[in-house]
Amino acid sequence: GDDGNDGRDAVRGNGSPQxxxxxxxxxxxxxxxxxxxxxxxxxxxGKDTFFRDVHLFIERAKDLE
Length: 65
What we know:
Layout: E1 8-11, E2 17-19, H1 21-24, E3 26-27, E4 42-45, E5 48-51, H2 54-63
Parallel strand pairs: 3-5
Antiparallel strand pairs: 1-2, 4-5
């Protein structure tokens, strides 16, 4: 995030990181964005990133750890 903490906004009491959705992106297998006809697994819409592929979304979450 903008606070310089490498995408983590806070840490939960159990020690697990909590991310800002804007940093992680959104999983939506049915997202109907501009490249829906090409079935791109990742789509950028403005500042948001949408993942149609759950495996790529999970990898993104792991990258933020």
